[in-house]
Amino acid sequence: MLKLGFQPTLVTFSTLINGLCIEGKIDQAVRLYDDMVGQAFQPNLITYSTIVNGLCKIGDTTRAISLLRTMEERGCAPNIVTYNTIIDSLCKENNVHEALEFLSEMRAKGIPPDVVTYTCLICALCNSCKLKKAARLFKEMVATNCKPNVLTYNSMVDALCKEGGILEAHQIVEKMIQVGVEPDIFTYSSLMNGYCLRGEMDEARAVFKSITKKVPDDVAYTTLIGGMSKIGRLVVAQELFNKMCASGLIPSLITYSTLLDGLCKHGHLREAVELFHVMKSSGLEPTIVSYTILLHGLCLVGQLEAARKLFGALRERGPQPSVYTYSIMIKELCREGFLDDAYELFGKMEVNGCMRNSWSYNKMIQGFLYNNDITRAAKVIREMVEREYSADASTTARVVDLLYGGSTCKYFYELVQKL
């Protein structure tokens, strides 16, 4: 354009910046913005908001906030869209505290929050287990005649269900319907999950039946399958799985793993292995989560040798064992009295690229303590303390038993004072 003798205008720059942002070329858009300012053009609200949005989309919220301050310094006042973009990005980064500070800033400038502002913040607060703050903001939203949308309602319903507030969740769903907001599959799945968490499976099934006209999705089926599996109603869980397949829905890895976990934990290993093979034959590639569930199932029914073979195959061919896979094997080896093998495996974890965590330390310590190997237990406790991990309830209980039993040395007593 410049070579042809044409001078760019503000509209030209803004159009090019918008195009670059749409294509995800944010760094180029920022450079073009710098060129624009360098040529004495004054960016307008649309230009600034476009770049702020682009920076937030690539997760560079810090630069987006810096640009927000720059536009204010240059006399261009941010509007509700600009603020919402920043607040949404901060919420996605789980930086709810700073997002709430921007809400206060908006209000101080006379910019009232809208449904997008409230929904972003309520979702983030619910995801951060700050239900009371979310509820206060929800009430304020309704009181200011800002109508919640289905996402706002769903965030509150889901959070309440997870906290055991199923009655309050039902009240919100009833309010949704009263004001003309149609509950969706996610709403009902949250209610089902709430009942499942309380073990109220008949109520969960009633919710499931109420959405048959809406065509339950894989999330709804998986939620109910998981609930039935947890309380041992495996026949019902398998019937739901078969019904799901017959309806044309394709089970996901999560669905398979949910049923697989239920079968393994209740000792139905043969059915679990069959399901595992069905999952593989369907074209789904099992993850380490699926393999760990099966490994745990083998350990629960005392098939240690089969578990060792599976674990060895994972180390050779993948997927590589996780810290939980290792910990399950360590626990089972200790339970069967193979302390040396367990300790060797514990030592190889980090050599094989799997960092030990609090769970793995506790399983190793418990194995030694329950087999009265106090010397090695003390050694692992010392290492755990040095890494600033804490003893869990089972480890603590065993240590207390040993101390009160008077069978431990002074060194061990001094060491556990640090737990």
Strand composition percent: under 5%
- Cα(first) to Cα(last) distance is 70 Å
Q: What sequence of helices (H) and strands (E) makes up the elements? A: HHHHHHHHHHHHHHHHHHHHHHHH
Mean of all residue-level pLDDT scores: 86
Task: Report the biggest beta sheet as strand number plus sense, adding barrel if it closes.
Answer: none
SS class: mainly alpha
The number of helical elements comes to 24
Number of strands: 0
Rg calc: 28 Å
Q: What is the general shape? A: globular
Helix content: over 70%
Report the uncertain regions: 1-6
Helix/strand layout:
Elements: H1 10-22, H2 26-38, H3 45-57, H4 61-73, H5 80-92, H6 96-108, H7 115-127, H8 131-143, H9 150-162, H10 166-178, H11 185-197, H12 201-210, H13 218-230, H14 234-246, H15 253-265, H16 269-281, H17 288-300, H18 304-317, H19 323-335, H20 339-351, H21 358-370, H22 374-386, H23 393-405, H24 410-416
Detailed description of the structure:
The protein has 419 residues and is mostly helical. Helix content is 73%, strand content 0%. It has helices at residues 10-22, 26-38, 45-57, 61-73, 80-92, 96-108, 115-127, 131-143, 150-162, 166-178, 185-197, 201-210, 218-230, 234-246, 253-265, 269-281, 288-300, 304-317, 323-335, 339-351, 358-370, 374-386, 393-405, 410-416. α1 (10-22) packs antiparallel against α2 and α11 packs parallel to α13. It is globular, with a radius of gyration of 28 Å. It starts with 9 loop residues before the first helix and ends with a helix.
Summarize the structure.
With 419 residues, the chain is mainly α. Helices cover 73% and strands 0% of the residues.
